[in-house]
Amino acid sequence: MLFNSYIFIFCFLPVAVTLYFLFATRSHRLANVFLAIASLFFYAYWKFEYLPILLSSVIVNYIFGRVILEQTSKRMKCTWLVVVAILFNVFLLGYYKYADFAIFNINAVFSTEIEFRNILLPLAISFFTFQQIAYIVDCSRGEVKDKSFYDYILFITFFPQLIAGPIVHHSEMMPQFADNTQKKVNLKNVASGIFIFAIGLAKKVVVADALSPYVSNIFDVASVLTCADAWSGSLAYTMQLYFDFSGYCDMAIGIALMFNIRLPINFYSPYKATNIQEFWRCWHMTLSRFFMEYIYIPLGGNRKGNCKTYLNLFTVFVIGGIWHGAAWTFVVWGIMHGIAIVVHRIWRFYGVRMWTPCAWFLTFMFVNVAWVFFRAQSFGDALKVLRAMFDFNLSGWSAGFIYPKIILFVALLISFFFANGISRLEKFKPDLKSFIFVSILLVLSFAQLSKHSEFLYFNF
Asked: Could you give the CA distance from residue 380 to residue 128 in angstroms, rounded to a whole number?
């Protein structure tokens, strides 16, 4: 079920919110159980065959977590159990996401003919797997207090953040679900939720989806590109991904607010960044937090000298590239960002400063070029676009696609110069001005809802 669909907006969401608070008038625990069941229904509606995989993962990780909690409460070491639990999650993710990729590379290197498994990637497995790895580690650190199985299911499956994040900690979510003072309808939160949801919905269906056909034509269809075509196509994907993912993040925050739950901010104007480190502090912020807390720091962080620090940073970004997709193009994208973050750290170590507009321009241009590998279906497609981008002899735009180019120009202006949705939410007041603003966004968005369009991060 998509956030940007009639059935979700006009049926599932209002029914879920209404029943949640009705159940809360009888029993706060019953309300949480209902919300967990509703979240499982939301997930199964997409494809029922995925539900057993999700439930199996949840049950196994809950058992691991419960045993680890009991061991840590007795001050007993359970390192081996934590390792086994993490390996279980890594194997589960690896099998469903990377099995065919591994077979492809084995066949290519050893000239074998191993048959592909043709495994369908279960929806959200990358996100709920990382969230459960974080839970296991937090259990070993004694940072988890709640042992309820029903609450754990709700923690993992809470539908606003289940499919594409944010990746949340048990300690930042469950106290909110346990707070009985939040089990009543809060009209201010509902209004705020609708406000930020409308912004996110417009980002997705009015901007990102309008750019999608043009991006597909440039990357997947056109065999010959002019320089102008290649640059507008790469920028169009840069904006499509921005508005698609930030739209999802805004909608997730808005939906959660309707239940009086505050999700962590996951996206904060990353294209305004003046260096690559700042970019990653603003793009998919909870994923960056996960890599920092559960990979970078355990590897040694910055505690063992500059060379080890640079190696740790590079390793984290290569892993990040692999996490996003089972293809060498994602690996190259991760390597590019790994090199960029190391160069930035060396640059900062020597105290070199750059004029701010120049620093912003270089950062954005690097991110835009790197996205070419992220979007391309193959190295051939990536090189096709990159060659045309830097072949200045081939000037001029091909005919057609006027409307997406207008949308691209507007998207660039918004991402560079306008306040983001979270900043607007912090200043939100339920007045006539906000009502008119939301109404305009919803009218524009509803006019586009008939087009079935998944979020890009569903593929990762």
From this structure: 33
